Amino acid sequence: MNHIRSHIMVCTGTGCSSSESPKLITAFEAALKDAGMDQEVRVVKTGCFGLCAMGPIVMVFPEGACYTHVKQDDVPEIVSEHIVKGRIVTRLLHKEEDEKEAVTSLSETNFYKHQMRIALRHCGVINPENIDEYLGVDGYTALERILTEKTPPQEIIDALKKSGLRGRGGAGFSTGTKWQFTYDAVSPDGVKFVACNADEGDPGAFMDRSVLEGDPFSVIEAMTIAGYTVGASQGYIYIRAEYPIAVKRLEIAIGQAKEYGLLGKDILGSGFDFDLELRLGAGAFVCGEETALMTSIEGHRGEPRPRPPFPAVKGLFARPTLLNNVETYANITWILNEGWEKFAAIGTEKSKGTKVFALGGKITNTGLVEVPMGTTLRTIIYDIGGGCPNGKKFKAAQTGGPSGGCIPASLIDTPIDYDSLTAIGSMMGSGGLIVMDEDNCMVDIAKFFLEFCVDESCGKCTPCRIGTKRLYDLLCKITDGTATMEDLDTIEELCSHLKSSSLCALGQSAPNPVLSTLRYFRDEYIAHIVEKRCPAGVCRNLLRYEIDPDKCKGCTLCARNCPAGAITGTVRNPHVIDTTKCIKCGVCQTNCRFNAIVKH
Amino acid sequence: MPNCKTAVPYAGTPEQEERLRQVIEAHKGQPGATMPVLQAAQEIFGYLPEEVQIMVAEGLDIPLSEVYGVASFYSFFSLNPKGKYRISVCLGTACYVKGAASILNAVETKLNIQPGGITPDGVFSLDACRCIGACGLAPVIMINDDVYGRLTPDQVGPILDKYMEKK
Known about the structure:
The structure holds two protein chains of two kinds. Chain A is α/β, with parallel strands linked by helices.
C-alpha cells in the first residue's frame, strides 16, 4: 500500500461546485501527476466546510491550511510551493476582515471558534462518496453494536428521550417521544415505515442539503437504526429534485451500503431487514409538511390531511410511520455513540444540543454554521458572520423562512433556542437565517414571504388559499401607497383567522412574517400608509427621483439612458425628471457621474 | 394560467415512446409510482404534453384526471416545452434581498419574455425559481446546468449574448 503523506480536500458542495470546484480536482490531479507525486498525495472531494462565501475552498492536510477563492490558475502554485517545497501559499490563505495576518487553520478563525459541529461533524472531513471513509470515522459502530447486542428498542428510545433531542425540521417535537409513539403503534398487518424529510423548501435554507452532500451515510445509518427500533423494514427519503448533487451522493451511498451488507436483507447477519428508497420531490413547498409529504410519496398531489391521526399512528400507506428531518437523523448516531449525557449537557434547559443555521442575505460570511443552542444572535451575526458588509447597519434577521418571523436589532442578545424564538414571535424553523440591513424594507420583506405562501398554497383549504391572497393584496396596497390605517386592522384580523382555521402549518404560519414585522416595525408600515414614504427606499411606487440642479452638469447621460424618455434638458444645463413619465427604474442614478440624482 | 394545454404540436418519436413504456413497465404495481414515472417521462420528452399523460394513465391503469392532477400540482412538471437554454432566476430569500428582482427584470427586458415563457425561436425559456441553495453566491441564475453567481444587472446581457452566439 502506498503511503499517503498529504491530503488535498476540495469542497464539492453546491456552493463551491457552482464556483467550479470540480475543475480544481482535475487540475490538482494533473499537477500532482506532473510533479510525480500522485502516489503520495491524495485529492479528496468533500462536503461543505461551511464558509460558502469564500468558495471554492481547498484544505491541505496535515498542515490544515485553508485556501479560499481558489482558481484553476492557483493550482500549480499550491502544488509546486506547498506540496513540493512545503511552503504554505499565504497569498491564498483565508483572511479575516479586520486582521492583516492570515490564519493557517480554519479552526482558529472567528467563523469556526464559536461553532460546535455535531450534525456537520463529518462534512468536509470525509469523502461522501466512499463508505470506507465513513467507516474510518467510526461509522456504523452504533448500528453494529445495536444489532450484535440485540439492544432492546426501548433502551434506544429512552436514550433519545433523555438526550433531549428535538425535531430539527422546525416544530421542535421531542424525537424520543416520536419514536416511542411509532414503536407503540399497532399496525394492522405489522408493516411500519421510516421516512426522512429532505424536502428542504424554505428559501434561503440549505442545512439539510449540506448534510446529505457531505455525510449521507450518517443519515442512512440513523434511519436503519430507526427501522430496527420501531419495527420497520422499509424506509423512504423524500428529497427535493432541486438538489442533484445530494440525490447523486445518496444514490451512491445507498448502493455502497447494500454492497457492504449494511442495508437490505439480513443486515450484519442479524436477521434484520431494512431497505431504503429515494423519492424525488417535484417543487412543492407544502410537501415539507409531514402529511403532505406522505401523500406525495403515495403518488398523489401533495395535499396535507387533517391530524390526528398523526403519522406515528396512521401515516404512509395508512401504516404507522416515523418521519424525521435530515438534521435530526444526523444527530442520532452521535448521541448513541457518545452517550445521551454528553448531548444533554450542551444547550439550554429545554433545547439540547446544537443547531445548524444557513446564514444568508446581508452578511459577510454567508455559509453554514453549527452552534450550541442558546448562542445569541449577536454571536452568530457579528462574531461568526462578520456583520453586515459595506458598513451597513444590521436591521433584523428572519428565522424560520416564510413560516417564521423577524428578530429586530434590539433583541440581538436573545439566546437562540426553540422557546425563546417562539416567545418573541419568530420560530426556529429548519434553520434558515436571513440577515437584513437598513436598505431592506420590512413591508416589502413581509410581502415577499407572503407571495411565496400564495404561490405555494396547495389550495385544499379555503383559509389558506384565499386568505393568503387577500392578505397579499392588502400588503400590495401598502407598498403602492393606497392603503389606509383601517387596512392595518383588517390585516391583523385576517392574520388571526388564518392562524386559527388553516388545515396545515403552511397556512397557520403564513401570517407570521406579517405579524412579527408589524410588531417590531409598525412605524415603517405607518410611514408607508400615512406619509406615503418607504423609509428604506425600496417600494417603487413611493419613490421619487429628482435631479439636484446645483450638481447637474448637463452631461445628458441620464437622458440618453432613461428607458421611459422621462428626462429632458439641454447640454450643459441642469436636466429635469418628469415624474409622471418616470418608471423609477433608477438607471439615471446608477449612470450619473456627479451624484446629482437623489431618491426620496 | 401558463400551465394549460400547450399550443405546440406533440412531436414524440417512437424511440421516446418505447423508453416511456419501459419505465412504466418497471414501476407498474409499485406503490406511489405516479411521480417517479412522470419524472422519467419529463426527462424523456422534456415536458408532459397531453399525449404523454394519456400514455402514463393507461400504462399505470389510473385515471387521466389523477395524472393531470399530479402533473399540474408540482412546479417541477411542465406542460409546456422548454427552451434549448432554460434560464432559472433564483428568487429565494437570500437572492431576493441581494437584488434578484433587478436581475430578473434585466433578463425579461433582454429577451422580451416573462417567467413561464419561451422565446418564439424556442432558444430561451425563462422561469423564476425558488432557492437553489447557492445562497453564498446570491444573486444567482442558472442556464441549464451552468450557475452564474454574484450577479449585477449589467452582467446579464453579456452572459445571454454568449448563448445567443452558440445557438
